[in-house]
Design a protein that fits this description.
Layout: H1 2-10, E1 13-16, H2 28-37, E2 41-44
Parallel strand pairs: 1-2
Length: about 45
């Protein structure tokens, strides 16, 4: 958790990429919640 939060504090936005076959990985929701809590723009493609 701490490493993801440190990195998120250094960026302006995030890009969420989810593999259509494997789906979200275990940490996807956790990191996305942290990014949204820090008011980082989430770009979904």
């Amino acid at each position: 958790g701490g490493e993801a939060e440190r990195i998120l504090r250094m960026v302006d936005g995030v890009l969420l990429v989810v593999d259509a076959f494997d789906g979200p990985m275990p940490q996807t929701r956790f990191v996305l919640r942290k990014a949204l809590a820090l008011h980082r723009t989430a770009h979904r493609r």
